[in-house]
Amino acid sequence: MNRKLLKTLLALLLSAMFSGTPAAAAQKAKAIAHLSGLDGKPAGAVEFAALNHGVLVTFDLQGLAPGAHAIHLHTSGNCDAKSGFTAAGPILTLTPGKQHGYLADGGPLAGDLPNQFAGADGRLHASTVTGSFSLGNGKRSIFDRDGVSVIVDARGDDYRTQPLGNAGNRIACGVVIRTRGPAPRPNFPVKNPGKTPDKTPGKTPAKAGG
User: Fold this and answer.
1) Tell me, what's the pLDDT at 121?
2) Half-sphere exposure of 199 (CA within 13 A, CB side)
3) Structural domain of residue 89, as residue ranges?
4) Regions of the chain short of the pLDDT cut 70
5) What is the predicted pLDDT for the residue at 208?
6) In a domain? residue 5
7) Residue 63 and residue 37 in contact, taking contact as beta carbons nearer than 8 Å
8) Is the bond into 193 cis (omega within 30 degrees of 0)?
9) 105: burial class by Cβ within 10 Å (0-12, 13-18, 19+)?
10) Which ranges constitute the DSSP H helices of 94-139?
11) Coil, helix or strand at residue 178
12) Using CA atoms, how far apart are residues 17 and 25, in angstroms rounded to an integer?
């Protein structure tokens, strides 16, 4: 292989590495929920980022009691504090008949997330990856007409008790908003497309040999 050809191949490889990869990554869907407590004060945010396999969920919360807290996705994007955040509905499920809790028979639900722990200063910084839902537009998407919310509970989830894991009152809530949609599906060309007859009004397809 001559030196000129080698340089050309190397340039093409570097171009693919440094220009193609960021462009593809930029198409990944993202979402965020800004949470507030029952008193209306900001309680932090939960961010969602689509991965090649699953969704990265990052928590940045404040004003919590030290210790374990259950965090779930709920079926409605309604964080009405007057209802004690019960207007957000039950924990999100995408499969009928499933049960709440990682340790429950038939569990977990799509909206179940692992307990997270606040420090002595009331702040909670953590992340987890889940494959139970997506940020896209398919059947496993969390985005529907009702929306979806993230709720933080007063205590940790025991992963067994129905319907909420004996986690206490709902103390913070935020509606999940998609900030970047998924990449559009590619339009693949039709293989060996046949010639379609002219359907212009008043015309008839030409006959062969005529």
Assistant:
1) 97
2) 2
3) 28-179
4) 1-26, 183-210
5) 46
6) no
7) yes
8) no
9) exposed
10) none
11) strand
12) 12
